[in-house]
């Protein structure tokens, strides 16, 4: 039976999530975001794209398949981690991080509050920092278009094994991080036209 830990990977190449990179680059500052942890990094494709732009970045993921691909390129930077646990992998515990990114992860988790608490604890070890999260965008105009075009079965496909189990708006995602003491400082839509975005980002500070 498929789980959220088993996902389709493209051998470590930027594929379906490549549209997220321009938005991430708008949200990151190489002078401020010095040491980044990619939580739920998958096969490391996005992390490596950011490395190519000069960012210092490490990654963790629950998928043995994804981490095996990531480690082929940078074995010292990617580590297996059960995202339902609240501790860093042993190979990362000696580091501190001023930034956490997490792209297209929170919609797969049964316990998103525990996941945000984990991110908070990691950043608190550094004395604070920034959390940048993306998830599929949901909003009035997009939802209306999905209804008009009869695309809800595709958008909320229950036949997708290991797929999305929670559907976030800017309001609910902001509430999730603010519960843990973060302050949301920026919103960024990503992919497609404005208000029909494929995904959305929030950046929050601790």
From TrEMBL:
<keyword id="KW-0808">Transferase</keyword>
<dbReference type="GO" id="GO:0032259">
    <property type="term" value="P:methylation"/>
</dbReference>
<dbReference type="GO" id="GO:0008168">
    <property type="term" value="F:methyltransferase activity"/>
</dbReference>
<dbReference type="InterPro" id="IPR029063">
    <property type="entry name" value="SAM-dependent_MTases_sf"/>
</dbReference>
<protein>
    <submittedName>
        <fullName>Methyltransferase domain-containing protein</fullName>
    </submittedName>
</protein>
<keyword id="KW-0489">Methyltransferase</keyword>
<dbReference type="Pfam" id="PF13489">
    <property type="entry name" value="Methyltransf_23"/>
</dbReference>
């Amino acid at each position: 039976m498929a789980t959220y830990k088993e996902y389709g990977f493209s051998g470590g190449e930027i594929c379906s999530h490549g549209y997220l990179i321009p938005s991430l680059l708008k949200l990151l500052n190489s002078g401020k975001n010095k040491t980044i942890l990619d939580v739920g990094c998958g096969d490391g494709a996005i992390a490596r794209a950011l490395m190519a732009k000069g960012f210092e970045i490490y990654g963790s993921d629950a998928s043995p398949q994804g981490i095996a691909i990531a480690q082929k390129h940078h074995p010292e930077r990617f580590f297996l981690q059960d995202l339902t646990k609240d501790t860093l992998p042993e190979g990362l515990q000696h580091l501190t991080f001023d930034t956490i990114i997490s792209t297209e992860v929170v919609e797969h988790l049964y316990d998103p509050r525990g996941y945000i608490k984990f991110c908070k604890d990691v950043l608190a070890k550094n004395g604070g920092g920034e959390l940048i999260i993306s998830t599929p965008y949901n909003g009035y105009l997009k939802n209306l278009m999905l209804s008009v075009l009869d695309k809800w079965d595709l958008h909320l496909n229950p036949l997708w094994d290991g797929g999305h189990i929670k559907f976030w708006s800017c309001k609910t995602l902001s509430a999730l991080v603010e519960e843990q003491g973060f302050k949301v400082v920026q919103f960024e839509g990503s992919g497609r036209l404005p208000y029909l975005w494929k995904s959305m980002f929030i950046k929050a500070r601790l």
